[in-house]
């Protein structure tokens, strides 16, 4: 069985900024593992928002911010399969917010993952795992039939 990972923003940020679960995220996103990494197009906006917030609150220096943004751009271009947000995806996300207590962008993330899962059904050797640090979103994703994982379940050996 080959794993493909749909990584939402709450989990992806951990690749660039040390947090609980960062080591695990680094292990599944390491290019050596050749994991299939899938993200939604809106993740671009969300990661920039997360890093800009850290820059404003002083927990991230301007120099570190610039380096992270450069690395994110490189990774978007080279390492991630990006699911485009189109009208059909938006319609699916709207249906999801009517059915579940989801924030708008979480619904878009979930709709994107469900689209990927429907494509992967023709590839039974590949399992899609929806990765998020948001337990509420994970519960809804699991109820929608996705395999799930939370990087916060993998605290590092050094406590970060």
Subunit arrangement of the protein: single chain
Order of strands, widest sheet: 3-2-1-4-5
Strand content: 15-25%
Number of helices: 7
Q: Please summarize the sheet with the most strands.
A: 5 strands, parallel
Unreliably modeled segments: none
Structural class: alpha/beta
What is the overall pLDDT average? 95
* E-strand count: 5
| CATH C-level category | Alpha Beta
Q: What's the structural domain tally? A: 1
In short:
This protein has 160 residues and is an alpha/beta fold. The protein contains seven helices and five strands.
Element layout with pairings:
Elements: E1 2-7, H1 9-16, H2 22-29, E2 36-40, H3 43-57, H4 62-78, E3 80-83, H5 87-99, H6 104-120, E4 126-131, H7 135-143, E5 147-149
Parallel strand pairs: 1-2, 1-4, 2-3, 4-5
Helix pairs in contact: 1-2, 1-3, 3-4, 5-6
Question: How would you portray this structure in words?
Answer:
- It contains seven helices and five strands; from the N terminus they run E-H-H-E-H-H-E-H-H-E-H-E.
- A five-stranded parallel β-sheet has the order 3-2-1-4-5.
- Helix 1 (9-16) packs across helix 2, helix 1 (9-16) packs across helix 3 (43-57) and helix 3 (43-57) runs antiparallel to helix 4 (62-78).
- The chain has one domain: Rossmann fold (3-Layer(aba) Sandwich), CATH 3.40.50.
- The chain has helices spanning 9-16, 22-29, 43-57, 62-78, 87-99, 104-120, 135-143; strands at residues 2-7, 36-40, 80-83, 126-131, 147-149.
- The model has no long low-confidence stretch (mean pLDDT 95).
- It is α/β, with parallel strands linked by helices.
- Helices cover 54% and strands 15% of the residues.
- It is globular, with a radius of gyration of 15 Å.
- Helix 7 (135-143) links the parallel strand 4 (126-131) and strand 5 (147-149).
């Amino acid at each position: 069985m080959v794993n493909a990972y749909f990584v939402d923003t709450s989990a992806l940020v951990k690749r660039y900024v040390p947090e609980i679960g960062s080591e695990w995220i680094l292990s599944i996103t390491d290019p050596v593992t050749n994991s299939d990494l899938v993200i939604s197009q809106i993740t671009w906006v969300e990661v920039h928002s997360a890093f800009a917030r850290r820059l404003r609150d002083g927990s991230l220096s301007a120099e570190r911010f610039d380096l992270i943004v450069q690395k994110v751009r490189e990774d978007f271009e080279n390492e991630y399969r990006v699911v485009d947000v189109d009208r059909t995806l938006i319609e699916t996300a709207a249906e999801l917010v009517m059915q579940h207590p989801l924030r708008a962008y979480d619904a878009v993330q979930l709709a994107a993952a469900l689209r990927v899962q429907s494509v992967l059904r023709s590839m039974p050797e590949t399992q899609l795992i929806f990765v998020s640090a948001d337990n509420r979103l994970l519960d809804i994703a699991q109820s929608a039939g996705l395999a799930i994982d939370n990087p916060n379940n993998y605290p590092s050996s050094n406590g970060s």
